[in-house]
Amino acid sequence: MGQAIATVVTGASGRMGQMLVRAALASERLRLHACLERPGHGWIGQDVGVAMGGAPVGVIVGDDPLEAFAQAQAVVDFTAPAATVEFAALAAQARVVHVIGTTGLEGEHLAKLALAAHHAVIVRAGNMSLGVNLLTRLTEKVARALDADWDIEIVEAHHRMKVDAPSGTALMLGAAAAAGRGVDPGAAKAVARDGITGARVRGSIGFSSVRGGDIVGEHDVIFAAMGERIILRHVATDRAIFARGALRAAIWGQDQKPGQYDMMDVLGI
Known about the structure:
The protein is α/β, with parallel strands linked by helices and 269 residues long. The protein is 36% helix and 24% strand. The chain is built from ten helices and twelve strands. Strands 3-2-1-4-5-6-12 form a seven-stranded parallel β-sheet, sandwiched between helices. The longest helix is centred in the middle third of the chain and has 16 residues, at 130-145. The radius of gyration is 19 Å and the shape is elongated. The model has no long low-confidence stretch (mean pLDDT 95).
């Protein structure tokens, strides 16, 4: 086995950040090299293990991504769109594999990521779990097999603290359904029904979002026709599945050429 991959975790204090820290510390293939937080955060200068309520692990939380990336081989990033774009530019300069689980990215952010991918490997996915990526492929196949007489509705549920809707996973599933149908996902997208909306537009792909409690993540893809329905479902009960997938992507990315990839590439499905 080769040398452990020096890995940076951004947004270390967040739910996913802490999960990623634990997963990296437990990994035989990766070594936790650095942890980052925004300037002024209370964790800055603390050992990340202590900040998380445990024993010291020898990694001090910092706020300088340039310094952290300089000696790293992978960055795992579940933060916010503006921060992710900044990290992507720095990761490209350092030729570091950048694994992105950030959601809520818009066109302007994606354009900047595409530029960064000319110089470094970017693995980006709305969801890093094996199950969800299999669900995405199944959604595309089922959508391809059924015509527009079958309405498609994607229903997602997450914890009360999630700030974006629909979820990145729901949008990924919607894009898969649109690809199966051979239509533009943006044009087919239908969200935020309220009041007298009129009949459903034929061929539209609907999205419904639920927010409450500590729901980790639930996604249903409903294909509904007159007299029958097909429902594809994935339920996540532990965020560790996302962390494991992200670290798997960081390992896989070490052998790739600069460019943009997703979990389908990582998993070979």
